[in-house]
Write a structure and sequence with these properties.
Blueprint lengths: L2 E4 L9 H6 L11 E5 L11 E5 L10 E6 L2 E7 L14 H10 L4 E10 L9 E3 L2 E5 L13 E3 L9 H13 L4 E2 L3 E5 L7 H9 L4 E3 L2 H10 L3 E10 L15 H22 L19 E3 L1
Parallel strand pairs: 1-3, 2-5, 2-6, 6-13, 7-10, 8-11, 11-12
Antiparallel strand pairs: 3-4, 4-5, 6-12, 7-13, 9-14
Helix pairs in contact: 3-6
The chain binds zinc ion.
Zinc ion (ZN) binds next to loops.
């Protein structure tokens, strides 16, 4: 096991050009694709080097493990920490995304556990999320909070269209049941939904509920990184209307469901990575263009 420590290059940075200046030049500590493991996915690769990275925003959830998938360098970080000790609202999302960006990552793959809000979205199936509803509060959710540059970034399409299409393709190739679109409601946690909340979310037609997609997805966009969420459905949130036999979610159920499906999620990610094009043609790469005023 190789341990490399990277100190932040400067104390703070507030603009896109500053962000690029922070990239370390150590070739051994570089990766182009980053994966944030969620509940139940604490490991992705074998034979890795570990990087302890500090950022201007503090310490990330864990060291970054860097390994090879074919000829691609891939970085992995468990977003709750390797022993699952960091609750969703306490995750330092800014440090996590910054750390990935600082070693060259421009594509982020984010598998998560999620509750289903719809009968046709079943436990064990995957949802390739394309929209979110933010119900969180008090989470630092921007790199541009203090100016002088005022940035209003578009959130109209928060997920990378190219990575989403590749994920759908990889799921179908692996004969994994997949929903090609989905809106996730991001709740603050740590508690699960009430029946009334869950009924409201379902009635709006939203597909899944989760605690970590916000602000992770938007911070990736602020760093002009492509971002993909693969939601693994582990439960039915507070139950299903008209299905009294479906019990409200418990931690035990989430863990059991994820454990039963972790290998499929890992295989899907490993199948997806070689198909990611080297060059980016998607809008994510220029997300900050025309988003700033002043500065
Ligand atoms: Zn993209």
């Amino acid at each position: 096991m190789l341990v490399v420590s990277l100190a932040p290059a400067v104390d703070a940075a507030k603009s896109a050009s500053d962000l690029r200046l922070l990239t370390p030049s150590m070739d051994a500590a570089r990766a182009e694709i980053g994966v944030f493991g969620g509940s139940g996915l604490y490991r992705l690769l074998d034979d890795v080097a570990f990087l302890a990275i500090e950022t201007p925003y503090g310490v990330p959830s864990d060291d970054i493990a860097i390994g090879r998938v074919g000829d691609r360098m891939v970085a992995f970080m468990p977003r709750h920490g390797r022993k699952h000790t960091i609750p969703p609202a306490a995750i330092n999302y800014r440090a996590n995304l910054w750390a990935m960006h600082s070693i060259g990552v421009n594509r982020v793959i984010a598998p998560t556990a999620a509750g289903s809000l719809q009968p046709h979205v079943k436990v064990g199936e995957l949802v390739i999320t394309d929209q979110f509803i933010d119900r969180t509060h008090g989470r630092p959710d921007t790199y541009f909070a203090e100016g002088p540059k005022v940035v209003h970034i578009s959130a109209a399409e928060p997920y990378c269209p190219v990575l989403r299409a590749l994920a759908v393709q990889a799921a179908k190739a692996g004969e994994v049941a997949v929903h090609e679109h989905g809106t996730v409601v991001v709740i603050q946690g740590p508690r699960f939904s009430t029946r009334a909340e869950s009924k409201w979310f379902s009635s709006m037609g939203w597909e899944t509920v989760n605690m970590t997609q916000y602000p992770e997805a938007m911070l990736a966009r602020e760093l002009e990184m492509c971002y993909l969420n693969i939601s693994l459905v582990t439960d039915y949130d507070a139950g299903l209307e008209g299905h009294p036999d479906v019990k409200p979610v418990s931690v035990e159920e989430v863990q059991r469901s994820f454990a039963a499906n972790t290998d499929r999620v890992r295989e899907l990610i490993l199948r997806l990575i070689p198909n990611i094009p080297a060059e980016r043609q998607c809008p994510c790469a220029t997300a900050l263009r025309d988003a700033a005023i002043g500065g």
